[in-house]
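User: Hi! I'm working on a homework problem where we have to compare a predicted structure to a textbook description. Could you give me the structure for the chain below?
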Amino acid sequence: MSYSINWDLESIFKGGSSSTDLTKKIIDLGQQGQSFNQNVTSWHPHQDAPVFETFINILNEWTLLMDGLAQVQSFINMIQSADVTDKKTIPLQGKIDSVYTLFKNTDSLFTQKLTEISEDEWTKLIAIPDVADQKIAFNLAEIRKKGKQLLSQKEEIMLNSLATDGFNGWSSHYDTLVASIVVPFTEKNGTITELSAGQAFNRMMSDPDQEVRATLFATWEKVWGEKAPLFADTLNHLNGFRLKNYELHGQQDFLETPLTYNRMKKETLDTMWETIAKNKQPFLDFLTRKAQLFGKEKMDWQDQDAPIILGNLKEKKFSFDEAAAFIIENFNKFSPKMATFAQKAFDKSWIEAEDRPGKRPGGYCTSLPESEESRIFMTYGESINEVSTLAHELGHAFHSDVMWDLPAIRRDYAMNVAETASTFAELIVADATLKEAATPAEKINLLDTKMQNATAMFLNIHARYLFETAYYEKRKTTMLSDDEITSLMLQAQKESYQDSLNSYHPHFWASKLHFYIDDVPFYNFPYTFGYLFSMGIYAYAQKSEGNFEEQYIALLRDTASMTTEELALKHLNVDLTKPDFWQAGIDMVIKDVEEFVTLTEPFLNK
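Assistant: Happy to help. Predicted structure tokens:
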């Protein structure tokens, strides 16, 4: 079977950024937004009780508008990702931003009106068939609670309007800056190659040649450092707006919104990080042992994800077709429905995988609610790491797929549980490759690949969390220079890695998209949560006696219908505020470290 390495976007809106269908869709959404605004404005909750017929009509309008906006925004983002030089997306983004601003203003009014409903009337509202049958009482209660923090409608409209060219604008500005990043590299034959940010990063972190990695990393730091003042401006204004918005809504703790968004308690977050902090030594030992295998005393930043090639090992490469077959085969062992879904994604060309200039760095999965489809973006490089990334994004897409029949309000799961399905898919692939290892050298190579994820979650992600915490604390009172931000990043990395590395990545804050995303604050700890949560699910799956698939899908379908703590208690019977659950997941990974150390002992000093 031969699969396309380019995604099909024509089936969504024919013509890409020049699509007349896309332009018409944006106009239609604008009209829908106006109608939605009029209907919400004229709605009087007390007069609508006790049947709440108008409320249900408004909720249906809300769903259609949200799905339409998500469809268009995903499409524009995909066009931008695949070709950062496509300037036709700029006016399109501006048009959809205007519609979205109108929607946000109306949504704020709708949310405020929900708070006007008395407790007695609210009890009646959540009991009506359209609410009770769809099981959306939890989600409506979330919205109503949020409404109690809102300012006046006039003030909310003002904030939303200013956000278009302020908050959202600075986030978009980051993409513009990244599009200008070019990383020059001189090949061994003397040819100078100009690499995009995505190409440079992939090669810098995975090239088997230490000299290539070191040279690229030095250039990478230099390139981002040269534009650091521009990135500092962007970060300062983006988060200055965010913090002022929090302040105006009575929030003094900058973690309140990310925790509320992720539906988790601060106690859960603190317990997770505290448990990880107590267990870092094995992972630091792993990095040191890996450095020793490279002939170094300590690990350099750019070597963390580099492959370990020992003896006569030739690292296995997977063509895109081979990766697809491998993923489908091993998904099938855990869940035939996952395998069938993955097959559909490959057959229908839902994946943009080509390695070419002009693409945005990184990878993601995006949902298209009107089409009830997903699309995956990445730059595929044939290593086992890319196979894992592909499986990761397919996990995200599968999560969305099992929820398409639910009301839109019950499909709005947060990032922490979103990373659960993706990481679970990665674990399936990692263990499958380990089982196929024929020699100790091959097993070491694959264990290392698996451990790269663990060290990222426990060390790199923790450094990001520490950095953002320190940055936000300072940004509350002042803007920071690029040198100050760089210093905070370096301090966070040294604290998280316990000063165990030989070199660090001071301008990581500039090169990492996650710090510049406007709609999800603290785009870090949910990754680690999802990783450890998926470890618990994976262990549960291995002990399951045949009914795991349905249990797993049931858990995924509940991810937007209860708090994270309730989800874990219902489906795994664990308390996330206690260290036991987190320790159990960490212990599973430590076993891999121990095996790695044992297997690599004979290869030292060779």
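For your comparison, note the following. Residues 440-475 form the longest helix (36 residues). The two ends are 42 Å apart (CA to CA). Good luck with the assignment!
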